[in-house]
Automatic annotation (TrEMBL):
Protein family membership: Belongs to the metallo-dependent hydrolases superfamily. DHOase family. Class II DHOase subfamily.
Keywords: Hydrolase, Metal-binding, Pyrimidine biosynthesis, Zinc
SUPFAM superfamilies: Metallo-dependent hydrolases (SSF51556)
Pathway where it operates: Pyrimidine metabolism; UMP biosynthesis via de novo pathway; (S)-dihydroorotate from bicarbonate: step 3/3
Protein name as it appears in the record: Dihydroorotase
Top-rank taxon: Bacteria
Protein source organism: Vreelandella nigrificans
Length: 345
């Protein structure tokens, strides 16, 4: 196949940050995606509908002129989020989901939930009004190895949560393990998952063999090959439960290439190209459209985009960096490398 045309994709898990960083990155996503679910882990986090509406306005203002990209907003769940705030969010039509960050699990999760028991009433309200819960699924207990934190989350948090709230819509975000892929596939229809391009393309060797490569450090951390294979099978299985979520998570070069580097891979400029590489590895390019453009809107109760994008088989070299904030560049994943697929302008 030398070209593939699909319904324009959406990104169901994206970090856009704010201010100068927002201005630097939003165009990369808007050039490819029709819509994106915007993560609320700003400093301070987006915890109210009012803040989500204001953040949405800042995103729209930062878009290149003429762009029709649509940001879909989320709230950051805390120990003190009220059921009233959830009702308000649902009625706004602007807030599409609520995000659970276990406190301390990832970037800007300090205000996250310390114990999900604190949120039982709020989650019951979410189930009642049909507001999806998006989950960063890792336990944070210091005795649990970083490579086991997602699998352990399924047992300790996800299963009890779904048992108490069987009608709750849940997206298990950025799944990275065979356990998560199998759990979601076997769960009821109201449970889905996003999968990143980098977890489909790379195992942990990419990050650790021949030198430590900080741009491959993200959370949940890259796993061993067995897990990558399970994610590839899930993404290309044709199941509507799995859809595209890049988790493109920009951090300044200096914050990544550091003695204590931040977690997050910046993939927005080449998101759909990277997914095409992964699907081609499975000889499943015919499954790309459902994963990238149809399954997500279906889960969120939205229509697919009405226009399309075309990928051409044409080698091109990704830039080494892009301008980011004052005096800082951002390094995309696969910076300076040759990619086999190009998005037709
Ligand atoms: N994925 C990451 O490694 N980082 C994300 C947070 C997240 O999605 O967990 C970020 O905001 O930088
Ligand atoms: Zn996360
Ligand atoms: Zn994320």
């Amino acid at each position: 196949m030398d070209a593939i045309t699909i319904t324009r994709p959406d990104d169901w898990h994206l970090h856009l940050r704010d201010d100068k960083a927002l201005n630097a990155v939003v165009g990369h996503t808007a050039a490819q995606m029709g819509r994106a679910i915007i993560m609320p882990n700003l400093k301070p986090p987006i915890t109210t509908t009012e803040q989500a509406i204001a953040y949405r306005e800042r995103i729209l203002a930062a878009l290149p002129s003429g762009s029709t990209f649509e940001p879909l907003m989320t709230l950051y769940l805390t120990d003190t989020t009220s059921p009233e705030e959830i009702v308000k969010a649902a009625e706004s039509g602007i807030v599409k989901a609520v995000k659970l960050y276990p406190a301390g699990a990832t970037t800007n999760s300090a205000s996250g939930v310390t114990d999900i028991a604190h949120c039982d009433g709020v989650i019951a309200t979410m189930a009642k009004v049909g507001m999806p819960l998006l989950v960063h699924g890792e336990v944070t207990d210091s005795d649990i190895d970083i490579f086991d934190r997602e699998a352990e989350f399924i047992e300790r948090v996800m299963k009890p949560l779904l048992a108490s709230h069987p009608d709750l819509k849940v997206v298990f975000e950025h799944i990275t393990t065979q356990q998560a892929a199998e759990f979601v596939a076997a769960a009821s229809d109201n449970i889905a998952a996003t999968i990143t391009a980098h977890h489909l393309l790379f195992n942990r060797n990419k990050m650790l063999v021949g030198g430590i490569r900080p741009h491959y450090y993200c959370l949940p951390i890259l796993k061993r090959e067995q897990h990558r294979q399970a994610l590839l099978r899930a993404a290309t299985s044709g199941s509507p439960k799995f859809f595209l979520g890049t988790d493109s998570a920009p951090h300044a070069q200096g914050d990544k290439e550091s003695s204590c580097g931040c977690a997050g891979a910046y993939t927005a400029p080449v998101a759909i190209e990277l997914y095409a590489m992964a699907f081609e590895e499975m000889q499943a390019l015919d499954k790309l459209e459902a994963f990238a453009s149809l399954n997500g809107p279906r889960f969120y109760g939205l229509s697919p985009n009405t226009d399309s994008v075309t990928l051409e088989r044409r080698e091109w070299r990704l830039p080494e960096s892009y301008p980011y904030t004052e005096g800082q560049d951002i390094i995309p994943l696969l910076a300076g490398e040759i990619l086999p697929w190009a998005l037709k302008a």
